[in-house]
Amino acid sequence: MTRRRARWPATLALLAPLTLAGCGGNNGVPDDAGTLRVMDYYVDQPHKSIYDRTLKACGRRAGVAIEHESVPNASLIPKTLQQAASRTLPDLLMIDNPDVQQIAATGALHPIADQGLSARGYARSVVDAARHRGKVYALQPVANTIGLFYDKDALAEAGVKPPTTWDELKAAAKKLTSGDRYGMAFSAAATYEGTWQFLPFMWSNGGDERKLASPRNADALRLWADLVRDGSASRSVVNWGQTDVSDQFAAGKAAMMVNGPWQLPVLDEKKDLDYGVAGIPVPKAGDTSVVPLGGEAWALPRTGNAEREAKAAKVLRCLTSDANQLALAAKRQTVPTKTALMDPFAGKHPEMREFTELVRGSRARTGELGEDWPAAATKIYTALQTALAQGVDPRQALREAEND
Amino acid sequence: MTDVAKASAKPSAPPLRKPAAEASAPVRWWHTQRGRERLFHLLFLLPALLYLVAFFGYPVVQNLLMGFQRYGIATFYTGEAPWAGWDNYAAVTSSAVFSRTMLNTALFTVCSILAQFGIGLAIALYFRRRFPLGGVLRALLLLPWLVPVIVSGTVWRWILDQDNGVLNRLLGGLGLGTPGWLTDTSLALLSVIMVNIWLGIPFNVVLLHSGLQEIPRELYEAAELDGATGRRAFRYVTWPLLRPVVTVVLVLGVVYTLKVLDLILGLTGGGPANASQTLATQSYHLSFRTFDFGQGAALGNILIAVSLVFALLYLRANRRAVDE
Question: Which of A313, A402, B10, B142 has the smallest number of Cβ neighbours within 10 A?
Fold first, then answer.
């Protein structure tokens, strides 16, 4: 009997590691204020090391060490949500600008004013993207957007100038299409990338995301549908992400494309490719080009440790300082977001002049709809797909998407 | 176990107990011999039960609950997920995409399974014969299974590209035109199904082949004496004896095919214009693109319910096979 009794604790002891194994994970949160955890999605070089150096320099000035973690783009939000649930949010968090309001709406972020920071002097779209219920939740040191890339040799050969209006675009694209080269390439994928590329056309035409089935939105969509229908753009655009578009352009399979400055390093590697960048063509001569604001903002999550939160704010202040904005913009082919810095920057970097002007007049995707933007963005790319792949009339495609 | 317990308990137990204590203590079920055995049985089951509850029970229950909640991004931070009743289900089933995804899921599953099984069975029967390099060829057949799906998805995307894909270069060279395999709304689902068939054949071949190996050769010899050869040997010997394996292959195939996600995301992303959207991809989209975890869970639960029907069919078929 005694022997059998003694087996009891032994049995339980054997079971214990099984039940406890799941709880063993240490999430490595340093409790002292000597180290700040920073998370972003800059997994690719050179961006990763550029931010790493800048953050560490800022950390030294604020008197803290920086633990910098980069996760792939697609896992940033899921990981952030996980951390929000387990109260292990990093001290400084990078968020893609159209996602800022959604994260802010959860209550997980401090308004930057809590830490004495302000968004004064920033471009309007940058503030719009970071504002939720009247408070600003993030600061964006640099921005990007999309423009029209063109193959100079191909244009010279066909005798066309970079198009500035929709009519010119259609004519140029048609003229530039020959053999296995298309005149124009863009992304109409069933992802937010497709929506993002379509916005300059929609907005420059006076279109709006609040009412999708409007004649102005339909006209913009008709332009894309026409380009595909007359063979100036590949039917594969419905399946191309922005990287695919850039690959096509770099391989000489497209003479013009819609893309962003983050492709510049990749394109510059192709020695035989001589390309230029222009603004996205507008409906009629004299119309202003309205492009969506791109780039990532940095926010201050609520971590419950006042000392660390204050230090994180110091690092953010340093990251968005004039000097760092200019340095980051120059190194990463982006544009500083403080309006006062734009002219000096464009003066020093003429290749970025076009993008600087575009960012100045850009519009935030979440500026009007805020948290409801993802739903509208989904409807927009659904309409793109219906019109381009199924050949449905653009107005009808937008109406179907809106009612869904 | 039982004998050992009895043997050790009988001689040692009585002298250790004081009679007075025995009289006052109530006799509980675990104090009896049989009860103690039951308890030990339960203890041995406990690890498996804990595992099942933690890794299967909890997620499923959580997913069921989530389907009835307004579970968005904010829920993760605040922990608040207001009860939504059937709202999520109403929203997903009344959406214009729903009927499309249901039809796509059905077509995708049925076509994939039929072709995978048919081709798989043919190959398995073929490889039952012994011939030079047969083993090597069979090993090569496993290749699609060994390559990560996201890799084969990317490769197939290149192959099927409308303008520069290998397939269309070939077809174009033969003067057969260049269909938009992944960009034409009427072809996208077909292309995805074709690639999925390619991907599923190894699974079918391996299981069916091992099933065929189990059938004793003598039966064929006996059948031959009775005049059953070739097709009739298959009809009266192979098929009846292979049936249990066939059931397993088909049911597992259905469950695996219903939930295919990575392949479709890699090839078409559910597009163009939802032409290849299935329950799995749409559920993924709702949860991880628009972050409406409530609706995503509701759609996921519908998928689970469909899978469950097939799982029950499998259990029933299995029991029948055992009874036979």
Answer: B10
